[in-house]
Amino acid sequence: MAKNSYSRKSNSALKGWLGLVAVILVICAVGFVALFGTNSIGSGSYSDIKLGLDLAGGVSITYRAVDGNPTQEEMNDAIYKLQLRADTYSTEAQVYQQGSDSICVDIPGVSNANEILEELGQPGSLEFVDPDGNVILTGVDVAEAKAGQIQDGNGYVVFLTLTENGAKVFAKETEEHLNQVISIKYNGTPVSQPKVNSVITGGNCYIEGMTDYDSASKLASVIRIGALPISLEEVKSQVVGATLGSEAISTSIKAGIIGLIVVALIMIAVYLLPGIAAVLALLLYVGLIIVLMSAFDVTLTLPGIAGILLSIGMAVDANVVIFSRIREELAAGKSTRNAIKDGFSKALSAILDGNITTLIAAAILIWRGTGPIKGFAITLAIGIVLSMFTALFVTRFILKAFYNIGLTNDKLYGKKTLDKKINFLSKKNIFFICSLLVIVAGWIGMAVNGLNNKGVLNFSLDFVGGTSTNVDFNEAYTLQDVNDKIIPKIRDIIGATESVDPQMVNGTNEVIFKTRTLTLEERTAMEELFVKDFGVDNQSITAESISATVGKEMKRDAILAVIVATICMLIYIWFRFKDIRFATSAIIAIIHDVLVVLTCYAVFRWSVGNTFIACMLTIVGYTINSTIVIFDRIRENLAIKSKEQSIADVVNTSISQTLGRSILTSLTTFVMVFILFIFGVTDIKEFCMPLMVGIVCGAYSSVCITGALWYLMRTKIGAKAEQAE
Prior knowledge:
alpha+beta, Alpha-Beta Plaits, four-stranded antiparallel beta sheet, 19 strands
């Protein structure tokens, strides 16, 4: 018997060592791909990740209306449709108006302007012409055009969706011209001549006859670019540099490495052996997210960095939830083997619910969002899937390997006594009053700002537009020179706290300065500055008004995406917890955190730009994940509640049991952002400040607000309300 026992232990130890070696080899392999790439998958290295305009620059193309003076409605429509077209090249592309009749298209991560122009197409007029030569439809009647295959899979087609008015006209025309050809012309040249095989009602049809997908895709592109309300011609195209400079990338990488090291040390110090397992899983996670972002051509910008930071926080959080449960099981007297098994089992629902809820929101934002919202959502979605995989499978595999090689002493797994119950609900009124005061202070701050003609919030040109000043200097300046020598003098004219976004034009001495809308006096003063202080010829200085890069339609899409995502999260939580009061409390907590951070934006006059959207979405994801963990424990404790226990006891016990997790997760995520703040350039510091406030606020609301809200609704509202004992 002893011999068989020894043999089993030897086999178990061998499996454990082989498992650890396999994990380390996989981490090394993924790390190698992340650093150097591999031809077998086409890329994979960090150096191949596409960077946005703020981090790496790209191509800027300027179009001008060909015919007459377009109306503002026509310009807005053209901008929106060009934005949809540009989004096919990068989710971070920006399209905005310049002057009264020009549109700029900025596409990040590329350097060949001619190639982009060829692929993007020359915006012109699109017409559907009947056999008699009459124009029956124009580009404005086309809502969408995309390439695809018909159901039998034997042919490539272009699927068309017409507007409501276009659908009515087309139904009538196809009935009159059945079995005849309707020609599709672009700038007067036929690009397709499909035959009408049946009367087309409802506005949905397809053009067949393409030999391959590329042909169908090209025709769809021509139709989309021709579906503009005005004809445009290219005025100029240029390669522009990063708005943040190369320093932003190097400092972010340095901050990320230091942050991961600090987080690793914290995890090991708190959880000992499980902490080491978490660090190994986190290394694999970081390598995989780099490889996948490179492989899927995800464009990385500041909002994308926010999505990565949130997903890293969630990856750490999943491990913290598991390890906290393991320690509880050990404190309850279970063996190490059973504690590991039950810890993972009991943590599963909280991890799945928290991550799936956030993943639902990310999916909605990818579907409906545009620009920075979609970029944020894509990086977040990739991170969530990877965080669940590494926490639930990789970490578990490593812990089993540790146990199998003989590391079975419960002290190695952070054994501790059971948590002491804290009466959080006794302070609920204080928590509510403090939160209300902060939120009210924000509304008062916005009102005061508005009365003083400062604007309720400090909206950047991303939201309100501004002035673009192009200056052709007599010598070449680096971005660092511009930031150190020129921008301070510009701020002396327009205001010390005003935002100035410089952009270098590659291969020239030209610099573009984007600021808030300048007065005539300020424009004149800036021109004198460049002439007198830098010897610039005043003929090489041009200034034009530019529209917001976050247009009306993009705002509409963003608001719709957030509303739909919130509703979907509410429905999921309601379904999973069988109690709408859980879902309602979670949504109120999200609104609370957003309003608190909004207070900081109003009071401290933080710039509200593209990163504002990413910050708010990060806070929403962070809050919902923290709240789900506490609600999961309340649900679990309700199921085993004794008659002697009150609802208040259950809530206080649940919050107390998860308090360590709430503090540690907030600490590790805060550390990552704080180190990025310490090392980052000015724009990154401005980006990190609201994130740090949101992290602290999210932890506070999860611990102090959500449980109390649910308790009040449970005991005061509804037919099944239960009074506290």
